[in-house]
Task: structure prediction
Amino acid sequence: MQDVRDALMLARSSEGKLVQRPLSPHLQVYKWPVSMALSIGHRISGVGLAIGTLLMTWWLVAAALSDGAFAAVQGVLSSVIGVLALMAWTAALIFHLFSGIRHLMWDIGLGFDDRSYRTSGWTVVVAVVAATLIVWAVGLAVW
Result:
C-alpha cells in the first residue's frame, strides 16, 4: 500500500476475499436522463424565482415611491441585461409550473412507467420553450 487512502479502498467480497472497492464515478460518467436534468432544473428555477420576485418587488416599490425611482428601475429592466433577466425569470416561472404539474401527476400515481416518465420530461422541455416564446412574443407586441 502506497497511501493510507489505499487501505480505505479495500473490502471483502461475499466469499471473504479482499477486493479493491471502485471509486465513485464523477458526474461526467453518469448519463443525464431528462428527469435528472429536470429535477436539478426545478431546484435552480426555484432560486431563480426568488431572485426574480425580488426584482419585481423592487419595480413595484419604485413605482409606489416616485416617478424618478420608477424611471431608474424601468431603465435597468429595459436594458439588454434587464430584458434577459426578465426572460430568464419568465422561463423559470413557466418551467417551475410545468415541472410542478408533472410532479402532481406523479402524486396521483400517473406517469411512472418508463415511457411516460421520459415522454413527460421532454413534454415539459418543449412546453417551457413554446410557452416562454409565446409569452414574450405577446409581451413585445404589446410593449
Observations:
- The longest helix spans residues 34-65.
